[in-house]
Design goal:
The chain contains twelve helices and eight strands.
Length: about 325
């Protein structure tokens, strides 16, 4: 297909769009556009040589549609804004995890939905197995914390594990697969659960996880499912929002998912009790910047939930 015309100013918009879409799907955009632009320019120059002297004053008017044509074709082939269109935005997200993450650790967020009639058996089983797993790893497998849901998704346990990067995660998983006691633990665990799932997550660079400490009180785990493509904007706004919130409460950690269910963000906070949580959240609205953070991030969310958790006896964070 060719975009050669005797008079580019008379080229129909529908014809232009069809041609440009065809070219975009059949060849390299840059080389196609260069060839197209050159052909149209040559045709226009030929047309100029046949114009009479009395019509020369209209040359500028006749050439304007060509500039518009070139701009539209360029937009279709390359995206608007000089290569900053939707395609470029999506492709750039591949590297966001590198720039947003702290980069030192990998965290695995596990969620166990427990059969109510086996709840006590479950608590006893993991209370014995998890500390042993940590001890035998020589500090290569670390338990950030283990909690049971008090408000929200009941009969559910949340465990967050820390590894030395993806290499450390692979090494520990390989070790556990060869550990007879761990395999025995899994065999006993599975009948106690309705379901279980996990996510591999990274820490936000501006919000590293707290080390083991006994804070007391309650923990709130807030989970946000973001609309795809909005993680960078979320991070930019929450970097400012954390400065407002941490004046009144203890930020425990924040992670974004890389494997498992994607576009998830988890925030964890600690409060002495629910009344303090209520007052803390009210105080945040009085700080400059918090209202702006909420306004800028709420439109990025598809779904959100908040669960109140209580730490298990063996949890590193209590």
């Amino acid at each position: 297909m060719s975009l050669l015309v005797n008079n580019p100013s008379r080229l129909s918009m529908a014809s232009l769009l069809r041609s440009a879409v065809y070219l975009r799907t059949s060849a390299h955009p840059r080389s196609v556009f260069q060839a197209t632009h050159l052909s149209a320019t040559r045709s226009f120059s030929s047309s100029q040589r046949h114009e009479s002297a009395s019509q020369s004053g209209n040359d500028d008017k006749d050439s304007k549609p060509l500039g518009k044509v070139s701009g539209i074709v360029n937009s279709i082939l390359h995206g608007s804004g000089g290569g900053s269109g939707p395609l470029t935005k999506v492709m750039s997200q591949e590297s966001w995890g590198v720039s947003l993450a702290r980069g030192k650790y990998v965290h695995e967020v596990q969620k166990h939905r427990i059969r109510p009639e086996r709840f006590d058996d479950y608590v006893q089983l993991v209370s014995e197995a998890f500390p042993r797993m940590v001890k035998e790893s020589n500090n290569k497998l670390r338990l950030t914390g283990s909690w049971l849901t008090e408000i929200g998704e009941l009969d559910t346990a949340v465990h967050i594990w820390e590894f030395d990067g993806y290499v450390g995660h692979a090494q520990e998983m390989d070790r556990l697969r060869r550990d007879p006691l761990y395999q025995k633990f899994l065999k006993e665990l599975r009948p106690m659960l309705i379901s279980r799932d996990n996510q591999i997550c990274l820490e936000f660079a501006f919000w590293k996880s707290r080390p083991p400490v006994a804070l007391g009180g309650i923990y709130e785990m807030r989970t946000y499912v973001l609309k795809p493509g909005n993680l960078l904007e979320w991070e930019t706004n929450w970097r400012k929002g954390l400065e407002c919130r941490q004046q009144f409460c203890e930020p425990v950690g924040a992670w974004f998912s890389q494997l498992g269910k994607l576009n998830y963000v988890h925030h964890m906070w600690n409060y002495p009790d629910l009344e303090t949580r209520k007052k803390t959240r009210e105080q945040a609205w009085k700080v400059d910047g918090w209202a702006e953070t909420v306004y800028n991030t709420v439109r990025l969310i598809e779904h959100m939930e908040a669960n109140i958790l209580l730490p298990m006896e063996f949890s590193s964070l209590k």
